[in-house]
Amino acid sequence: MREADGSVDVGEEIPDPAPVEAVAPEPDPEPEPEPTQPPAPAPAPKQATPSDPSAWTEDEDRKILTGLFRDGLSQLACAKLVNRSDNATKFRLRVLQGLVDKRQAPPYAAQIIAELTGGAAPAKAPDPKPEPAKVEPSAAPAPAAPKPSEPASWTSLTLAQRALVKHLERLNDDFAPQDDLDIATGLFDGRKAPTIGADLGVTPEEVVARFKLMKHRDILDPKGHLTIDGQRDLIVALRYRVSAYEAALAEVVK
C-alpha cells in the first residue's frame, strides 16, 4: 500500500488466491445401440430376355409345353406362366420342338410332347442303306445335288451376299431369321425401334443392338454407315435365311 509520501508499506500481506477446484472430466456418453436392419428381401427372379437368355429348367419347359399343347394357350400366355418375355418363350418353344437350326431340344422334350399329345415319343428311324449306283459307261456324270440345308437360291447369291449369310449364321439364336428380317426392313422403312420391339416382344434397346450385330464391316463405309449396296445385300441375305429356315421346317413337318 502506497503511503502519502510515496513510500510503499510492505507490512501488509497480500492474501494468497483461493485454490481452484479441479473439475473432473465428464464421462463419455455411452454409444447408442445400432438399429437392427431388417433382412434384405430376396432378389426377384431374373426375367430372361433375347439378349440375355438364362438357362431353362425342365419344370419351365414342361409348363410352357403343357400350356401350348394341352391347354391351348397362346405363346404370350405361356410366357406369363414362367415369368419370361414373349420372344424368349416363343424361341424356346421352337427349340423344344426341334424347329430351330443349330439348337437341339433336350432329351426329355420329345417325351413331354408325346405325353401331352397322346402319341408315342418320336424315335429316330435308322438310316437306310444306300443302294449301289448303276454304272453306265455312256452316261454323263450327274450334277451335284444342292445340300439339304442350302436351297437352290444359294447359287444365285453373290460372294458378298454369301459372306453376309455366313456372318448372320454366326449370330446368337435369340432372334429367329424372320425377326431379323422384320427388324432390318422396319428400320429401313422408317419405323421406330419401340414400335418394332413391341411387335417382337423385346425392348427398343434390344432391337438396336441386334441391328448393329447384323452390320458386317464389308457393307459399311469408312464412317461406319451402311452403303446402298450393303443395305441391298443385307436384305437379300436375311431373306435367304428365312427361306432356308422355312425349308428346314418343312422337312421336319413331313
Task: Please explain how this structure is put together.
The protein has helices at 58-70, 75-82, 86-96, 107-117, 159-169, 177-188, 193-200, 204-214, 228-253. It is mainly α. Among the domains are: 58-117, Orthogonal Bundle (Arc Repressor Mutant, subunit A), CATH 1.10.10; 152-253, no CATH class. Helix 1 runs parallel beside helix 4 (107-117) and helix 6 runs antiparallel to helix 9. The chain is flat, with a radius of gyration of 39 Å.
Present the secondary structure layout.
Blueprint: H1 58-70, H2 75-82, H3 86-96, H4 107-117, H5 159-169, H6 177-188, H7 193-200, H8 204-214, H9 228-253
| Rg from alpha-carbon coordinates | 39 Å
Could you give the count of β-strands? 0
Helix content: 40-55%
**Main sheet, how many strands, which sense, barrel?**
none
- Terminal CA distance: 133 Å
The shape is: flat
* Mean pLDDT across residues: 74
N-to-C series of helices and strands: HHHHHHHHH
Uncertain parts: 44-53, 120-128, 139-152
Q: What structural class is derived from the secondary structure elements? A: mainly alpha
**Tally of DSSP helical segments:** 9
Strand-residue proportion: under 5%
